[in-house]
Design brief:
By secondary structure, this protein is of the alpha/beta class. The protein folds into two domains: about 130 residues, Aspartate Aminotransferase, domain 1, CATH 3.90.1150.10; about 220 residues, Type I PLP-dependent aspartate aminotransferase-like (Major domain) (Aspartate Aminotransferase, domain 2, 3-Layer(aba) Sandwich), CATH 3.40.640.10. The chain is about 40% helix and about 15% strand. The protein contains 14 helices and 13 strands. The strands form three sheets. A seven-stranded mixed β-sheet has the order 2-8-7-6-5-3-4, sandwiched between helices. A four-stranded antiparallel β-sheet has the order 9-10-13-12, covered by helices on one side. The protein is globular and about 55 Å long. The protein starts with 18 loop residues before the first helix and ends with a helix. The relative contact order is 0.16. The chain binds pyridoxal-5'-phosphate.
Length: about 375
Amino acid sequence: MRFNEELKNIKTYEAGKPIELVVRDFGINEKDIIKLASNENPYGTSQKVIEAVKNIADKMYMYPDDSMYDLKNLLSKKFNVNSNEIIIGAGSDQVLEFASRAVLNNKSKVLMSKITFAMYEIYAMQQGAKIIRSSCYRHDLDEFYELYKKENPDIIFICTPNNPTGDAIDKDYLFEFLKKVDEPLIIVDGAYMEYASFKDKNKKISPKELIENFENVLYLGTFSKAYGLGGMRVGYGIANRKIIENLYKLRPPFNITTLSLKAATEALKDEEFVKNSIEKNFSQMERYVNYALKKGFEFIDSYTNFITYILPKDINSKDISNRLMKKGIIIRDLNSYGMNAIRITIGTKEQNSIFFEKFDEVLNEY
Ligand SMILES: *Cc1c(COP(=O)(O)O)cnc(C)c1O
């Protein structure tokens, strides 16, 4: 049997550890486990969405409306773009995959930040593309521009706010860059944009303004984070019609489920839930900032629902993550990104209190 050459060097994506694993491996009760590893909304899902999905549970034997009319209609109103400038994916991950397949081949190059969302590399490598990274974990767009001129990449990935670091770039800074770069496809991943635009208006990037000004930009958004629908797998891409038409050619029919489609549509009708979650997120975030200051940990100012602590050399991120896991706290070790750092999703007030308690215990073991 022969597998494609491209697969040889791909490292399988390591997802945030599921609660089930900690139950199985450490024999901890499910109710005693706190998962702060995948940046889900800790306040769960809007009650209105839950009710709406329950009400159509008996429709799951049917395929969804493949035109996704209602969802695209609400998104088009929310962002003030046309429905034909939108594509829906099973998570924005699937839109990323479409884009990589639409553009890349084994002679292509892609450009991304030194430390950014791991799936960009994986989708690019599936196409056999070469990965170029900037030298700084922040999006230094001056360096991006130098690399763009030198390497002539086919896709440039810009993740703002960036996962797993949590920092975000200013809109003006991004637009200056975009004005100078018109050849490659530029993917602006706004998975945490709802958080960033709440915290600082200068970080807010509107898809409408992007696609009005730049015909080579694809904006990505998701229902998995602030909208509380990680388990439903719905995301979207917004770009000019020509890009969307090409992505559509790669889309399998019925690429999200009947229940997911309903959930995402209803979620857009309950912006109050989202706003509330975001407000609580940033008030809880302050506790994480204060904790880091108290312990003398370096941390990155975050525009998301997670915070990254850069640990001192004598505290190994992998070790500390494992010790926390044995106490039922799941966080994200950033060792695989080449950083001695941990990324913690900001939980509810109660979850965070338990986190600090357990983290203190673990630190005292050193
Ligand atoms: C979570 C996330 C996504 C996509 O999540 P989906 O669940 O596939 O929509 C995309 N980009 C970043 C940076 C993320 O953190």
